Amino acid sequence: MTFFKMAWRNLVKRPIHNGILLLAIATGTLTLILFFALSDGFLELMTNAIVDNHMGHMQIHQKNYLLKKDVKLIIPDSPEALEAVKAAPHVTGYSPRIVCQGLISSPEKTWSGMVYGIDPSLEEKVTVVQDKLTKGERLKSDDQRGVYVGEALAEKLKVDLGEKIVVMAQDVNGEVSGAAFRIRGMFKSSS
Prior knowledge:
The chain contains six helices and six strands. Strands 1, 2, 3, 4, 5 and 6 form a six-stranded mixed sheet that branches. The chain has helices spanning about 1-15, 15-55, 65-70, 80-85, 120-125, 150-155, and strands spanning about 100-105, 110-115, 135, 145-150, 165-170, 175-185. By secondary structure, the chain is of the alpha+beta class.
């Protein structure tokens, strides 16, 4: 009981001091709440950007692919795996991909980057890259030599819509292969 009497006397005796202390505690609490809200929102924004632009919500890889990133680690029974994914009840879209690190060259420069081989009609159901096009047109399924290029990479390579680039990468046999592609679209992403 003495503790409460002392506390009450302190509150009544020093109202300005206690008001400043209460304001400091409230300001600190509000700052922490805002900080955590901003960091949670930023984390969710970055997660959504990665999922929507690159990955999709789920990926199926050959064992140890994410550790080694070896182009030889392909899924051997990919048609059967695709059928199993298609048959899953909650799957709204799927897209097989070939992903590798490669050299992308223009007549002016060469740059290293990730290369994604996709089926455009299926990829539209998985990612939103086609919605981020700033120039050009959507890829058609029968266009075997059309590519999307990020605006930042296009600027580094000094290329524009309709120009050719050469992509060189390692194939499944361990050999370096290359092919020429025409830029059909350019996109800008948040990542």
